């Protein structure tokens, strides 16, 4: 089963908490702080794996979590770092943040790694918060909580050449004749419901990858049928072989069919029509196809589309077609951009995350990255230190947030181990 779009949940490891501890030994009853730091949380890493051709594995496992860092210990012992998790995906996988739709990563090479979520930093032990005026701090820094996301994995096949055209025009037969692929072939619409890949060996030049893109229909660019799912796989294709039924077996006009498919490509992404394209006029072994081949040449060769009469069923004309394709690939620009450059999804820096205010037994408890550092390094017993403390609460927006929570004069505020009454 070919799976090319799944939704999964990923979470980085949380940092371990710092330890509150004081050195104790024989004859030493009031030693200094010796709380160790918490370990760092594990990362979430995606890596490209060319041996994978589908996202099938993600149908059975949808939640991926990195390991949390261990808490710090006594005697300055650091907590162990959490174990990172590596998620293998097929080459050509685009990773989007589900809510915003923004691209977080684009894996295009085997072995390419992308750290999507960094693990949370471990909290500092109380040893770091000792100052000349506060020699026995009874609090430590909590570990940072790592990010977590719902993400969409989209597989966009990376092929040198793509076979496009309406259903039942002979694309799968052509693929089976020139590569080692064994697609399902039958005489009915939509035999191919998923892309097939094959390698054309170096008989016509350098080897190249050929993809059979499932048959498109009119309105595919608007999502008709499985249009968007099919069109996704043509975006990273260098050259198109546009296969058309030159015999008009089902009563369609091959000239008009080429135009319809190209209109769908243009509507989905105008850049697609700028790719090199050759027309394979198939089924020329059927009487009456000669006239349509000439009509195709008259209609499209002036537009730069070479027309090659072939019969995939009888292996006729394929050498000329593939030799031309190999020639196009040989002269293909190396620096072509297959998709518009994207702005990577930016995580909010952990030191810019907002503080939180909870009400516990009538006490307004303030927590947040940076708040505990301010407390640890500020001596509020001095006039200068207290003025800095007040200014910090105001500039950080803590005063305003407390008022929004309904705090009144005389109510108690707690920031880690320090409590004070609120007066405006």
UniProtKB/TrEMBL annotation:
Residues 159-330 form the OBG-type G domain. Gene3D superfamilies: GTP-binding protein OBG, C-terminal domain (3.30.300.350), GTP1/OBG domain (2.70.210.12), P-loop containing nucleotide triphosphate hydrolases (3.40.50.300). Its EC number is 3.6.5.-. Residues 1-158 form the Obg domain. Its cofactor is Mg(2+). Keywords: Cytoplasm, GTP-binding, Hydrolase, Magnesium, Metal-binding, Nucleotide-binding. Mg(2+) binds at residues 172, 192. The keyword Cytoplasm applies. Coiled coil: none annotated. Residues 347-424 form the OCT domain. Transmembrane segments: none annotated. SUPFAM superfamilies: Obg GTP-binding protein C-terminal domain, Obg GTP-binding protein N-terminal domain, P-loop containing nucleoside triphosphate hydrolases. GTP binds at residues 165-172, 190-194, 212-215, 282-285, 311-313. It is found in: Cytoplasm. Monomer. PANTHER family: DEVELOPMENTALLY REGULATED GTP-BINDING PROTEIN-RELATED, MITOCHONDRIAL RIBOSOME-ASSOCIATED GTPASE 2. Belongs to the TRAFAC class OBG-HflX-like GTPase superfamily. OBG GTPase family. HAMAP family: GTPase_Obg (MF_01454). An essential GTPase which binds GTP, GDP and possibly (p)ppGpp with moderate affinity, with high nucleotide exchange rates and a fairly low GTP hydrolysis rate. Plays a role in control of the cell cycle, stress response, ribosome biogenesis and in those bacteria that undergo differentiation, in morphogenesis control. This is GTPase Obg. It comes from Anaerotignum lactatifermentans. The lineage of its organism: Bacteria, Bacillati, Bacillota, Clostridia, Lachnospirales.
């Amino acid at each position: 089963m070919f799976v090319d779009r799944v939704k999964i949940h990923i979470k980085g490891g949380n940092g371990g908490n710092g330890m509150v501890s004081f050195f104790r030994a024989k004859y030493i009853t009031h030693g200094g702080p010796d709380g160790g730091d918490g370990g760092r949380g594990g990362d979430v890493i995606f890596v490209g794996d060319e041996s994978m051709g589908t996202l099938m594995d993600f149908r059975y496992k949808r939640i991926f979590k990195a390991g949390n860092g261990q808490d710090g210990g006594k005697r300055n012992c650091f907590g162990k770092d959490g174990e990172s998790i590596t998620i293998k995906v097929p080459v050509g996988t685009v990773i989007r943040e589900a809510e915003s739709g923004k691209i977080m990563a684009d894996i295009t090479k085997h072995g390419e790694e992308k750290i999507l979520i960094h693990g949370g930093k471990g909290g500092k032990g109380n040893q770091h918060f000792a100052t000349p005026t506060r020699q026995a701090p009874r609090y430590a820094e909590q570990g940072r909580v790592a990010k977590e996301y719902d993400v969409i994995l989209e597989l966009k096949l990376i092929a040198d050449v793509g076979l496009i055209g309406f259903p039942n025009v002979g694309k799968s037969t052509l693929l089976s004749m020139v590569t080692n692929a064994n697609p399902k072939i039958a005489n009915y619409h939509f035999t191919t419901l998923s892309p097939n890949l094959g390698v054309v060996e170096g008989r016509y030049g350098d080897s190249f990858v050929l993809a059979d893109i499932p048959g498109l229909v009119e309105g595919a660019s608007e999502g008709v049928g499985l249009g968007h799912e099919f069109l996704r796989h043509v975006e990273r294709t260098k050259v198109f072989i546009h296969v058309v039924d030159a015999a008009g077996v089902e009563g369609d006009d091959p000239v008009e069919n080429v135009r319809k498919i190209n209109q769908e490509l243009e509507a989905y992404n105008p850049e697609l029509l700028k790719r090199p394209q050759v027309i394979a006029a198939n089924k020329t072994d059927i009487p009456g196809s000669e006239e349509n081949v000439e009509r195709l040449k008259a209609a499209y060769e002036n537009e730069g589309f070479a027309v090659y009469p072939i019969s995939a069923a009888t292996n006729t004309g394929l050498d000329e077609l593939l030799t031309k394709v190999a020639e196009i690939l040989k002269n293909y620009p190396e620096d072509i951009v297959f998709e518009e450059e994207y702005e990577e999804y930016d995580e909010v820096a952990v030191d810019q995350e907002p503080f939180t205010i909870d009400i516990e037994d009538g006490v307004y408890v303030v927590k947040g990255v940076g708040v505990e550092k301010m407390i640890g390094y500020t001596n509020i017993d001095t006039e200068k230190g207290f003025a800095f403390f007040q200014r910090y609460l105001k500039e950080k927006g803590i005063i305003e947030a407390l008022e929004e929570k309904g705090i009144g004069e005389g109510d108690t505020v707690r920031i880690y181990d320090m409590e004070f009454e609120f007066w405006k």
